[in-house]
Design brief:
about 290 residues, Rossmann fold, six-stranded parallel beta sheet
Length: about 290
C-alpha cells in the first residue's frame, strides 16, 4: 500500500518514520518544506501526483497556550487544512488516519472518556482539533480519527525531556498534581497506526473515532516522579525535592482539563491493540537520549 505521511518532522512523525520504514508499505514522508498543508491548492496538486492509498496526518498546531493568541494559525492548521485534506481523500478514494487529542473534552468527567462522550473543548487548541474531527466526518471520506494524550518520546519537545532538563538544573521543582491523564509513548502511537493501516484494504471498512493512550492514569506530578526515578537509576542528576502543586498555583493562558483519561477499550476489543505502557517506555526513552 502506498502511504503518504504528513508532518514527518514532528514528534509523532519521527516515530512514524521509524515504524513504517521497517514495514512492507511504500511510505512517503513529507515535512512542511515538502508539502505545506496550509497551501490548499499545492496540497491537492502534490497529493494527486503521489496518488496514495492512505494519508496519515501527523501534522498539527500543538502549542496549546500560544493558540489562545494565535487563533488564526491554529484553526488554519487544525481545522481548515484538515478539511481540505479530507476532501482530497474523498475525491481520490484515499483513506485518512488523523491524530486528535483529549483536549476535545472539558475534563469535568470522573470516569474515562469513551469515543461517544459529549465533547466540550475549553480552549482554542481543543476547539480547533474538534473542528478538524468534524470536518473529516462531514467530508464523506474513509477515515480513522485517533485521539491520544500526553505524548512523549525521544524526539521533539515534550514533558519528559523538559523534566530531565529542569531536573538537572534545579534542586527543587513544583509539578501540577491535580490534573489527571494518561501519558502516551509516541512510538506506541506509531505502532498503533501501523497496525490500523491495513484496515483500509478491507472491503467492509467502517470509519470511526478511537482512543489510544497510556494504560495507567496519573497526575503530572506522578509522571514526573516516574521520570526522575528512572533518571536516577541511570545516574542522571535529579531534583532533591519535588512537590505537587495545584493548577491555581501554576496558571497558564489556556485551561487544561482536570481529568482527561481516555478509555481505550474499543481499540482493544475490536482490533486487539493494547494501550501504551508508558512506565516501561520511560527508561527506554532515557536510554535513547543517552
Amino acid at each position: 500500500m502506498k502511504i503518504l505521511v504528513l508532518g514527518s518532522n514532528g514528534q509523532l512523525g519521527h516515530c512514524l518514520v521509524d515504524q513504517f520504514s521497517c514495514s512492507e508499505h511504500q511510505a512517503i514522508f513529507t515535512t512542511r518544506s515538502d508539502l505545506d498543508i496550509t497551501d490548499f491548492a499545492a496540497t491537492k496538486d502534490k497529493v494527486t501526483q503521489i496518488k496514495p492509498d492512505l494519508i496519515i496526518n501527523a501534522s498539527a498546531y500543538t502549542a496549546v497556550d500560544k493558540a489562545e493568541v494565535d487563533r488564526e494559525q491554529a484553526y488554519l492548521i487544525n481545522h481548515h487544512a484538515v478539511a481540505n485534506i479530507a476532501d482530497i481523500c474523498r475525491e481520490l478514494h484515499c483513506g485518512l488516519i488523523h491524530v486528535s487529542t483529549d483536549y476535545v473534552f472539558d475534563g469535568a468527567a470522573t470516569e474515562p472518556y469513551i469515543e461517544t462522550d459529549t465533547t466540550n473543548p475549553q480552549g482554542v487548541y481543543g476547539d480547533s482539533k474538534l473542528r478538524g474531527e468534524q470536518a473529516i466526518e462531514a467530508s464523506g471520506c474513509q477515515y480513522l480519527i485517533i485521539r491520544t494524550a500526553w505524548v512523549f518520546s525521544e524526539y521533539g519537545n515534550n514533558f519528559l525531556k523538559t523534566m530531565l532538563s529542569l531536573g538537572a538544573e534545579r534542586d527543587e521543582l513544583g509539578v501540577v498534581g491535580d490534573q489527571i491523564g494518561c501519558p502516551t509513548y509516541a512510538q506506541d502511537i506509531a505502532r498503533c497506526i501501523l497496525a490500523l493501516a491495513d484496515l483500509f484494504q478491507k472491503d467492509h471498512f467502517e470509519s470511526e473515532i478511537v482512543h489510544f493512550c497510556g494504560d495507567k492514569p496519573c497526575s503530572w506530578y506522578e509522571f514526573a516522579m516516574a521520570i526522575f526515578s528512572s533518571a536516577a537509576d541511570k545516574g542522571l542528576t535529579t531534583p532533591a525535592r519535588v512537590k505537587g502543586i495545584t493548577t491555581e498555583e501554576y496558571p497558564t493562558p489556556a485551561p487544561r482539563p482536570a481529568y482527561s483519561v481516555l478509555a481505550c477499550d474499543q481499540l482493544t476489543h475490536k482490533f486487539g491493540i493494547t494501550p501504551s505502557d508508558w512506565q516501561k517506555a520511560i527508561p527506554e526513552v532515557i536510554d535513547k537520549l543517552l
